[in-house]
Amino acid sequence: MNYYSLNKVAPNTSFKDAVIKGLAPDKGLYFPEKIKPLPKSFFNDIDKLSHTEIAFETIKQFVSPEIPEDVLKNIVNDTLSFNFPVVKLNKNISTLELFHGPTMAFKDVGARFMARCLGYFNQNNDKEVTVLVATSGDTGGAVANGFLGVKGVNVVILYPSGKVSDIQEKQLTTLGQNITALEVNGTFDDCQAMVKTAFLDEELTNQMQLTSANSINVARWLPQLFYFMFAYKQLYKQYNNIVFSVPSGNFGNICAGMMAQQLGLPIKHFVASNNANNVVTRYLISQLYEPKQSVQTISNAMDVGAPSNFIRIEEIYKNNFETLKENLSSYSFSDDETKKAMLEIYNSYSYVADPHGAVGYLGCKTYLKDNPNAHCVFLETAHPTKFLDVVEEVIKKEQPLPKQIQSVMGKEKKSIVISSYDELKEFLLK
Ligand SMILES: Cc1ncc(COP(=O)(O)O)c(C=O)c1O
Ligand SMILES: N[C@@H](CCOP(=O)(O)O)C(=O)O
To answer: Whose CA is nearest to atom 9 of ligand 1?
Structure first.
């Protein structure tokens, strides 16, 4: 599959090149040249397929011919070594749990898939690759874990100081080896802007091979479409009109769901559930796209003021506002509403949701008011113990710590504090 830049200036390129570059030279995000829908029979019989079979069939067109089928099968098998259960809360609402991987957030799949693709492309290459990542909480830990010890790859993670949870910080600052954490005095948007600037800095790119492991990289972004297939497989025999409410920040996950829809997955509608960082909610009302500095919330991984992937969403719906609105609704919720939702989910269904999942739940409830015949699945994007303080404060119950979380507790944080792009550049050139 070839990819084009959404800025339409840089030349089209192969999957391999798009993965290695991350961002196109004209600073545009890469997008596949074609999307070939899967046959109807694939969806009619999806319950007969395993997760790895579904993943293989759905990602194949995007990575071939550079990744041969036998290699792809291994990559997919290795990537998906945990489960993705749907839990039904009531007749209209279910949740898809995406936190059973090593760092307990939905980023594990994309990070592991991309690490294996890059490892494959890099196997006969002497040149080291530096993977730059901006994180508002979960991408950093997942990428650190996914790339730990990968030959020829150095990972540099930028995160906003004081704006990620304690567990998230441990996950991205304690691994050592080929992983370095840079603690930025600023917001996630500042981190993301620094990463994008680095890609355009020829003094850097002439000296080192830089790539990104954020969802701007197609190998990190596209595997997220598996989730929507896995949920559908578990629900389609019981429900029509399946709607997904996706807690959204950088909009990579929901945009991957839209790619699943383009492949033919019968998704009735998407709900982008936002915290107070609501640029897309406002856009759907006013048709004015006005990114602004992010504000801090209890669903911190969604504290994004300028979502990278919105441009891909516009491309999917052919830059047509009416088509976009037919497929996408967006609502924004405050921290107080989120906490109330966490308590409601716990009291009504004995289910412990994290703040991001709770925002997704609120999105379902709002959508269902006008669409009572839908079945709404909210994505539970991270395990509640990643946000232990707020979860225990709200539901007033101590939470047992899963082994993935226990394994980072008590480890020593190692980070380098930076305040500007120049300091990032100086670090990279050293
Ligand atoms: C727990 C959690 N929920 C939701 C999101 C938002 O996802 P996206 O950036 O793909 O919109 C993130 C961060 O990406 C996250 O870590
Ligand atoms: N919420 C993310 C922000 C980065 O998103 P990405 O999908 O573009 O990597 C995080 O947890 O870091």
So the answer is: 250
Confirm whether 196 is a catalytic residue.
Answer: no
pLDDT tens figures, 250-290: 999 999 999 999 999 999 999 999 999 999 999 999 999 99
Ligand 1 lined by 138 (C-beta under 6 Å): yes
Q: Give the chain's end-to-end CA distance (angstroms, integer).
A: 36
The ligand 2 atom nearest the CA atom of 143: 9
Which residue in the block uniquely carries the two structure tokens 């040249």?
Answer: 33
ipTM of the complex: 0.99
Which bin fits 313, alpha (ψ -120 to 50), beta or left (φ > 0)? alpha
Q: Which ligand is nearest to the CA of 169?
A: 2
Question: From the CA of 255, which ligand is nearest?
Answer: 1
pTM for the full predicted model? 0.97
Expressed in angstroms and rounded, the spacing between residue 253 Cα and the centre of ligand 1 is 7
Give residue-wise pLDDT tens across range 302-346. Answer: 999 999 999 999 999 999 999 999 999 999 999 999 999 999 999
* Nearest ligand 2 atom, CA 135: 12
3-state secondary structure the chain: CEEEECCCCCCCEEHHHHHHHCCCCCCCCEEECCCCCCCHHHHHCHHHCCHHHHHHHHHHHHHCCCCCHHHHHHHHHHHCCCCCCEEECCCCEEEEECCCCCCCECHHHHHHHHHHHHHHHCCCCCCCEEEEEECCCHHHHHHHHHHCCCCCEEEEEEEECCCCCHHHHHHHHCCCCCEEEEEECCCHHHHHHHHHHHHHCHHHHCCCEEEECCCCCHHHHHHHHHHHHHHHHHHCCCCCCEEEEEECCCCHHHHHHHHHHHCCCCCCEEEEEECCCCHHHHHHHHCCCCCCCCCCCCCHHHCCCCCCCHHHHHHHCCCCHHHHHHHEEEEECCHHHHHHHHHHHHHHHCCCCCHHHHHHHHHHHHHHHHCCCCEEEEEECECHHHHHHHHHHHHCCCCCCCHHHHCCCCCCCCCEEECCHHHHHHHHHC
What atom in ligand 2 is closest to the CA of residue 139? Answer: 12
Q: Which of 21, 60, 107, 325 is catalytic?
A: 107
